[in-house]
Design goal:
Elements (H helix, E strand, L loop, with lengths): L1 H12 L5 H23 L9 H22 L7
């Protein structure tokens, strides 16, 4: 689930990188999405086959990528 959700989120955010970063974004995004689901809907722990769990994981991954980009903006770029 993490690799698939991470790949979809990276495509939406037009983010580069390899499969390791994709997997990490997806896993961390699923955890964040589960936390958000539990906080808002009291439904953070859902099954793998639940569409809501996939949606929450995708939203979480998008948030993680957005925050990552905010924190790393301008680093490593030569002027």
């Amino acid at each position: 689930m993490g690799l698939i959700v991470g790949a979809i989120a990276k495509m939406i955010m037009k983010e580069g990188g390899g499969w390791v970063s994709t997997l990490l974004f997806g896993i961390v995004g699923a955890v964040v999405g589960g936390w958000i689901g539990d906080l808002l809907f009291n439904r953070g722990s859902l099954s793998l086959f639940s569409p809501l769990s996939w949606l929450l994981a995708l939203i979480g991954a998008l948030l993680v990528i957005w925050v990552f980009n905010l924190l790393t903006r301008g680093r490593g770029r030569v002027a």
